[in-house]
Design a protein that fits this description.
The complex is a heterodimer of chains A (317) and B (288). Chain A is mainly alpha-helical. Chain A folds into two domains: 2-56; 79-316, MetI-like fold (Orthogonal Bundle). Chain A has 16 helices and two strands. The model of chain A is unreliable at 1-18 (pLDDT under 50). At the A-B interface, α3, α5, α6, α7 and α10 of A face α1, α4, α5, α6 and α7 of B.
Chain lengths: 317, 288
């Protein structure tokens, strides 16, 4: 309705001479109409807040009193004086450096094993993917029970092998490794994507290689791996971004402890903002987080030219 | 190169590979089986040592405790269940419709002024950590007096970039001729969208529905910062408090029962609809 009246008043005069324009305008009108509900939400609750938080990071703000401009004060304090800022960054990076590569290797291994003529593939796939579906607080609670040093099943299983299990979540050395072990439980999410990629590799390539005398090991290194590097790359970027958003498990299972051993960056950010009402400082931390994620993603992107293979390249050679 | 299934010519798995796959599948299933069986365990089996995976004398006592008593919490469990369901369904429905509506012009109206710019903004926000928007979002919701309202749990999450991106990728594959043909037959833009475009991208919005459902249903952070009173909390938030917080094992029976209630809907939804997800994965061009 809006479209017709608008068209009627503004474009009617030129309509006969320039039909194309009328159509284009009509289309544009519909386009904006369809986009607008999403766009309003997006500007209001995503784009706007992003700019606002950049401004907030230059202030001191506790919700009750009006914001006070402090320039780069938050940033300087963060880098030089804050007692736990670097520590929380170190915890997060340690987790990333260990958990991401382990997850990549395990996910890919699973996908390779499933990429065979195996009966009931859907069942296998569903089983391995299941942990990614049930993620969240329920899983965090479940695993904190599994890790329980006294009646948890993990230490009991270890005791069967004659190993005295550590205190896991209550031990400063073992809390972070426990969370890494737990993360491996949900490698199925990455596995699904690897599997989709593996299944799009034409089997003729392998047949040709076999005829040329390539063994299984060679076929993997020379065909499979190069062809799925874009997917490894994709999972790597997703993994990095995910690690910097790590929150629920640390909040529910350890609360950042013991002795801040699992104080992830995002958890510390939450504490500053919502528990201690340091909204300006929290905004600065959030922007630094965004910056780190962008830099790491860019680094992965840049380096990708060296090791990522895209299908089109074959023709250029 | 897409969807070359060729299962017939794939090599056979060796016995060793079967063995590895089976062991890993068992390890993967173990925690879930453990959770299910624990939900039905009577108190005396709960803290046995050595622990037992399977329940010997199953009971529904844990569920009863969850539904009625939950002594410390004055709100009945059914209220949390309702909150979770209502917020999730509203978020999924609104989110899928809004994303699809916005994706259609981006994919099929290339002449729209600002089309390219708009899409590049969407893609760049895909990479941005949500932490950055959190604080101002909280302030906006707070100023509007929406803290503790359902709207606070629904509105901030529906206009996301991921859904728009996914829907656009799929809509691009629809031939323009199809849309033109419908218009020649007298269909208006609105009709084209609902009757032609949406049915064609069904696997995409089913996938988006599943991911959005799982994401919202399990969302812990949004209710954590946007709710204050007990009766507005959702299941994930309540789950973290029933057990008494980190390092505690209070009311483990009720916790186990609650875990089962929380995870069951996502598992059922996924098992029922997983074939659409796989189809979408194969088509969405993730590989390039």
């Amino acid at each position: 309705m809006v479209a017709t009246t608008a068209k009627g008043t503004t474009v009617a005069a030129t309509a006969k001479r320039r039909k194309g324009l009328t159509l284009a305008r009509r289309e544009a009108m519909w386009a904006y109409l369809l986009i607008s509900p999403w766009l309003i939400g997006f500007i209001w609750l995503t784009a706007g807040p992003m700019i606002a938080s950049a401004v907030l990071s230059l202030t001191e703000y506790d919700v009750i009193n009006p914001p006070r401009f402090v320039g780069l004060g938050n940033w300087i304090y963060m880098f030089t004086a804050d007692p736990l800022f670097w520590h929380s960054l170190r915890v997060t990076l340690t987790y990333a450096v260990v958990a991401i590569p382990l997850g990549l290797v395990l996910g890919l291994t699973l996908a390779l094993l499933l990429n065979t003529r195996i009966p009931a593939i859907a069942v296998w796939r569903t089983i391995y993917y299941m942990p990614s579906v049930v993620s969240g607080v329920a899983v965090a609670v479940l695993w904190s029970y599994i890790f329980n040093p006294r009646f948890g099943i993990l230490n009991w299983l270890l005791s069967l092998a004659g190993i005295r299990g550590p205190g896991w979540l209550s031990s400063t050395e073992w809390a972070l490794p426990a969370l890494i072990i737990m993360s491996l439980w949900s490698v199925g999410g990455g596995m699904i994507i690897y599997l989709a990629g593996l299944q799009s590799i034409p089997t003729t390539l392998y047949e040709a290689a076999t005829i040329d005398g390539a063994g299984a090991w060679q076929r993997f290194w020379k065909i499979t791996l190069p062809l799925i590097t874009p997917i490894i790359f994709y999972n790597l970027v997703i993994g990095i971004i995910g690690t910097f958003q790590y929150f629920v498990n640390a909040y529910v299972m350890t609360g950042g402890g013991p002795a801040n051993a699992t104080l992830f960056y995002n958890l510390y950010l939450y504490r500053n903002t919502f528990r201690w009402s340091r909204l300006g400082f929290g905004s600065a931390m959030a922007w630094f987080l965004l910056f780190v994620v962008l830099v790491m993603t860019l680094l992965v992107f840049k380096s990708s030219a060296m090791w990522v293979y895209y299908e089109g390249e074959l023709k250029k050679e | 190169m897409k969807k070359k299934y060729q299962a017939g010519r794939r090599r056979e798995a060796t016995t060793w590979e079967y063995l590895v796959l089976t062991v890993l599948a068992l390890i993967t299933m173990l925690p879930i089986v453990y959770m299910v069986s624990t939900a039905f365990k009577p108190l005396e089996e709960m803290f046995l040592y050595p622990p037992r995976f399977l329940v010997r004398h199953p009971t529904l006592r844990n569920f009863a405790e969850l539904l009625i008593a939950m002594d410390a919490l004055s709100v009945p469990f059914a209220r949390y269940l309702f909150n979770s369901l209502f917020v999730t369904v509203a978020t999924v429905v609104l989110g899928v419709i809004l994303s699809s509506m916005a994706a259609y012009p981006l994919a099929k109206y290339p002449r729209m002024p600002g089309n390219k710019l708009f899409f590049s903004i969407v893609v760049s926000t895909l990479m941005f950590a949500p932490e950055v928007t959190q604080i101002p979002r909280y302030l906006i919701v707070d100023r509007l007096g929406l803290i503790d309202a359902y709207a606070a749990l629904i509105l901030p999450v529906i206009a996301g970039s991921y859904g728009l991106f996914l829907m656009k990728q799929f809509m691009e594959q629809i031939p323009v001729e199809l849309i033109e043909a419908a218009k020649i037959d007298g269909a208006g833009e609105w009709q084209v969208f609902w009757r032609v475009v949406m049915p064609l991208v069904r696997p995409a919005w089913i996938t988006l529905t599943i991911f959005s459902f799982i994401g919202t249903w399990n969302d812990f952070f949004t209710p954590l910062i946007f709710t204050r009173s007990e009766q507005m909390k959702t299941l994930p938030l309540v789950m973290s408090t029933i057990g008494g917080g980190p390092g505690q094992v209070a009311r483990w029976g009720a916790v186990a029962a609650a875990s089962l209630v929380v995870t069951l809907p996502t598992i059922i939804l996924f098992v029922l609809l997983q074939r659409y997800v796989m189809e979408t994965m194969a088509h969405s061009g993730i590989k390039a």
